[in-house]
Specification:
The chain has a five-stranded parallel β-sheet with strand order 5-4-6-7-8, sandwiched between helices. A three-stranded antiparallel β-sheet has the order 2-1-3, covered by helices on one side. It contains six helices and eight strands. The chain is globular, with a radius of gyration of 23 Å. It starts with a strand and ends with a helix. The chain has two domains: about 55 residues, no CATH class; about 120 residues, Rossmann fold, CATH 3.40.50. With about 180 residues, the protein is an alpha/beta fold. Helix 3 packs parallel to helix 4.
Amino acid sequence: MVVTGACGALSTGSIPVSRPFKAGGTVRLSDHQAKSLSTHASSHCKGGSWYTIFMAATEEPKIKVLIIEDDVFMGELLMRALDRAGFEVIIAKTGGEGLTKFQETRPHVILLDLLLPDENGLEALRKIRRSEGGPAVKVIVLSNLSRESNFEEAQRLGALDYLVKVNFSLDEIIAKIRSVL
């Protein structure tokens, strides 16, 4: 939590601050301190002895998930569920678009379908692995193909998991993403 002062120094109350701050300055507080300040500020900042303050939560950077999925309905379903779960979601509908978006956004995780209109998802994964940052990205294959040969090839290319779509709920997919982080 970052507290930005409109004026004066934050020196009253029970929240220890290592240094005063000026108008527009900032001071970092723990979540506990921020909650205490929020409670105190809401009851004392109406023009009395306390200073007017503006509080803004600084969010941790969101985990970026690139979904490479050509099925519009499935892509939208995944995007909404992951967004609600707090992830930043990027969608690509082809392997080529997936490679481009990977290079532009550097996601933490890729959910990869295998049946794509321009190329097999495994070929797209090979290209991603050869690009800068590609060897380190975490990949989960999410496909309706359940052939053993696809599973083995995905594993050889470094996919951390292989999920057959019909066997997993959205909550389970989200749990898998969190488990690889």
